[in-house]
């Protein structure tokens, strides 16, 4: 039985509705994680480091999809809550069209200038060729990847999170199988990893296009788009926090790599890459919750249902706090196994990765509140507060920490930078929650 956006949500119903989005985000993160495992174990440390160097750029470019998806789904869900279904479909069609055009332009430009880009991100020697090859192949499917990011949010807004999950699972499984074939069996090296990811991204990005073009029983379908600059600007404002999050994370990850190259060389970059791959999966659960919950919040906000807003806020905070403790405990227990999966072939690299992951994992205790806080205000169509939280969390505080802490604590300063940055952000997030409660009636 499908759960509708308009329903009252118990804990069980809320988790059932949001679980597909969580699994969807986990499978999305598996793309790069599986690449990392196969590249590290079958191609080598240098190739693994090169993927880690170029990945921040590719993820930063794909941020356009997250911005339009999260910001647009909030606006479209609010419009659905107001009872304007046809107008919501026009907005939906317009935003997907803009994402496709923007993605194509960015893909072409990135392909042309990829070699210069990887050198700017710190690649040198053999790493330049590795990074350029992986990056250019990835550019072929970059538009599809952006659309995949867009549809992750719109499947939820359409009331079809389970269908979105099926698409992502199909794409993720394709990536895993092709990685094993291209890298483990056929020995295509780093190019094999890129081709596997490219194929899976085409599945994740283009299958939803086919679905929404056909007649379907969801709340959304493609119609002739009507371009409304006001709606597009509002979408950009709403989704600016997600754009800022992805761009900032890309910049900060590049900064981490540069700092680690100075302190620990190629081993440092490889260790950080392994930590970040595991982090992708853990944090993806928080991101999936935020993506799945946002359209529900937007719908009830648009419908003026303050009682349900209070219900969603309180239940979400409880779930996220408990899940943060569970993830922290799991990270500490599983750190040896997870580190060995990526870099078990090198004793020194394994020890560095294990220590780094255990220190880094402290952030899991609080990061979920900050992610939900940013998404919550996006869902309320308050893009400014959402952007401020994301800007402080993913850029300002982390940049300050990663530049200053290593001066006193060396590599341990890099591993702990994320936790201190998240703690500082939590203070700001809590302040916004308290100050905005009378305006939106969620407390």
Write the layout of secondary structure elements.
Blueprint: H1 11-43, H2 45-61, H3 63-81, H4 85-120, H5 126-140, H6 142-157, H7 161-185, H8 190-213, H9 229-238, H10 240-263, H11 265-302, H12 306-343, H13 347-360, H14 367-379, H15 383-409, H16 411-435, H17 437-440
Pfam families: MatE
Organism: Dorea amylophila
Family: Belongs to the multi antimicrobial extrusion (MATE) (TC 2.A.66.1) family. MepA subfamily.
Number of helices: 17
The end-to-end distance, rounded to whole angstroms, is 30 Å
* Amount of beta strand: under 5%
Largest sheet: none
- Indicate the low-confidence ranges by residue numbers: none
Order of helices and strands: HHHHHHHHHHHHHHHHH
| Shape assignment | globular
Q: What radius of gyration results from the CA coordinates? A: 21 Å
Structural class given helices, strands, pairing? mainly alpha
Keywords: Antibiotic resistance, Cell membrane, Membrane, Transmembrane, Transmembrane helix, Transport
InterPro entries: MATE_fam, MATE_MepA-like, MATE_MepA_subfamily, MdtK-like
Transmembrane segments: 14-34, 54-76, 88-113, 133-151, 163-184, 190-213, 276-297, 318-339, 359-380, 387-408
Subcellular location: Cell membrane
Describe the structure.
The chain has 443 residues and is mainly α. The relative contact order is 0.14. It is globular. Helix 1 runs parallel beside helix 7. The model has no long low-confidence stretch (mean pLDDT 86). It has 17 helices and no strands.
């Amino acid at each position: 039985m499908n759960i509708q956006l308009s329903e009252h949500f118990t804990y069980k119903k809320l988790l059932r509705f949001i679980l597909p989005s969580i699994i969807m985000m986990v499978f999305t993160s598996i793309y790069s994680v599986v690449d990392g495992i196969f590249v590290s174990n079958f191609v080598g440390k240098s190739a693994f480091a090169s993927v880690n160097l170029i990945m921040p750029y590719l993820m930063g470019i794909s941020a356009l999809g997250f911005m339009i998806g999260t910001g647009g789904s909030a606006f479209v869900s609010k419009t659905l809550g107001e009872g304007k279904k046809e107008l919501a479909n026009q907005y939906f069609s317009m935003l997907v069209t803009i994402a496709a055009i923007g993605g194509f332009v960015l893909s072409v430009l990135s392909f042309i200038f990829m070699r210069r880009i990887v050198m700017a991100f710190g690649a040198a020697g053999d790493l330049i060729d590795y990074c350029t090859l992986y990056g250019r192949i990835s550019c072929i499917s970059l538009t599809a990847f952006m659309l995949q990011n867009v549809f992750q949010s719109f499947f939820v807004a359409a009331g079809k999170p389970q269908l979105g999950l099926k698409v992502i699972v199909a794409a993720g499984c394709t990536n895993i199988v092709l990685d094993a074939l291209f890298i483990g069996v056929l020995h295509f090296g780093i190019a094999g990893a890129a081709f596997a990811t490219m194929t899976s991204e085409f599945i994740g990005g283009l299958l939803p296009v086919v679905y929404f073009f056909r007649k379907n029983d969801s709340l959304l379908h493609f119609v002739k788009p009507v371009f409304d600059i006001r709606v597009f600007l509002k979408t950009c404002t709403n989704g600016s926090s997600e754009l800022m999050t992805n761009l900032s994370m890309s910049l900060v990850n590049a900064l981490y790599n540069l700092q680690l190259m100075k302190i620990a060389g190629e081993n440092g970059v490889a260790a950080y890459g392994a930590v970040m791959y595991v982090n992708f999966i853990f944090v993806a659960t928080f991101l999936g919750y935020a993506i799945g919950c946002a359209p529900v919040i937007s719908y009830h906000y648009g419908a003026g249902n303050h009682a349900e807003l209070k219900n969603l806020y309180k239940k979400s905070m409880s779930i996220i706090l408990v899940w943060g403790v569970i993830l922290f405990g799991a990270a500490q227990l599983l750190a040896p196994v997870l580190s060995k999966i990526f870099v078990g072939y090198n004793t020194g690299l394994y020890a560095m990765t294990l220590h780094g992951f255990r220190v880094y994992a402290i952030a899991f205790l609080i990061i979920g509140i900050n992610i939900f806080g940013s998404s919550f205000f996006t869902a309320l169509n308050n893009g400014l507060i959402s952007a401020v939280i994301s800007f402080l969390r993913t850029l300002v505080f982390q940049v300050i920490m990663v530049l200053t802490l290593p001066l006193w604590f060396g590599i341990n300063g890099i591993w702990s930078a994320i936790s201190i940055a998240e703690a500082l952000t939590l203070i700001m997030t809590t302040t916004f929650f308290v100050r905005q409660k009378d305006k939106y009636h969620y407390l």
